[in-house]
Design goal:
Layout (H helix, E strand, L loop, with lengths): L2 E7 L6 H11 L5 E7 L6 H8 L6 E5 L5 H11 L4 E4 L8 H13 L4 E5 L6 E3 L3 H17 L12 E4 H6 L10 H11 L4 E5 L1 E3 L10 H30 L1
Parallel strand pairs: 1-2, 1-4, 2-3, 5-8, 6-9
Antiparallel strand pairs: 4-7, 5-7
Helix pairs in contact: 7-8
């Protein structure tokens, strides 16, 4: 089994090299590729990515053609060539050991996605701002209820998808962080097989967080409504087909 690791990068000059070094040092997957997408960075990220690409032939650097996190991830999905695809953040907030656990889970169970949760038994969360944590839990609990799901961390970016299944989720309409809500909602509402496991998360160590609650709240609700309507339409289509 092989894994493509998509890492969107926008102004990540302080973090990205450390993140890549940790992946190369700790990853247990033998057959993998790292796809770095420069998302119109205004600092030295582009220069650093070119330097990083020399570390291993398994590293590929791309330039985003549609500005925004959603565009960067879509660009990465287009270029994936492995059995599974993982979306990994550039700021070292995700734990490479959890990627190894994702791999073993997918290896041992036939699933379309491994959905990590930072808020179940066995997970460790460090430095999550209390105000954001409060809003995170309210929103995720609300989504959990209306989608009748046992998952509780939809907005977490770090997940593993079977590449074929991930490409079947397109078109992906989200342009920003709300893409991390859209993907698992589609996995769940379309009845793909998935497994939930605990993962660790630590707050960004350097620089400022790019996630802005006030700016992104409307985008999240748009994605939620979009996926809910899709769920209803899929249900009606199945019912009509049975009739």
């Amino acid at each position: 089994m092989s894994v493509s690791i998509i890492i969107p990068c926008r102004d990540e000059e302080k973090d990205i090299e450390l993140t890549i070094d940790q992946i190369l040092k700790k990853i247990t997957v033998l057959n993998f590729e790292i796809i770095l997408i420069n998302d119109f960075s205004s600092d030295n990220t582009e220069k650093i990515l070119k330097k990083i690409s020399l570390k291993s032939e398994k590293i590929k650097v791309l330039e985003n053609s549609s500005q925004g996190l959603g565009g960067a991830i879509n660009k990465g999905i287009d270029q994936t060539s492995k059995d599974y695809t993982c979306i990994f953040m550039a700021d070292s907030s995700d734990d490479i050991e959890d990627l190894n656990k994702y791999y073993q889970t997918a290896l041992n169970t036939e699933v379309d996605a491994v959905l990590g949760s930072r808020f179940i038994y066995g997970s460790i969360v460090e430095g999550y701002p209390k105000s954001k944590l409060f809003l995170n839990r309210i929103f995720n609990y609300f989504v959990k209820i209306i989608f009748f799901s046992n998952y509780n961390d939809f907005t977490n970016a770090f997940k593993l998808y079977k590449t074929r299944s991930l490409k079947e989720l397109r078109p992906i309409v989200s342009e920003n962080f709300n893409i991390f809500l859209e993907l698992p909602l589609k996995i769940i509402s379309r009845n793909y097989k998935y497994k939930i496991i605990p993962i660790n998360w630590r707050n960004k160590r350097t620089g400022k967080a790019k996630f802005k609650i006030k700016e992104l709240s409307s985008k999240y609700f748009f994605t939620l409504i979009y996926c809910f309507i899709e769920k209803i339409l899929l249900k009606k289509t199945k019912e009509n087909f049975k009739d």
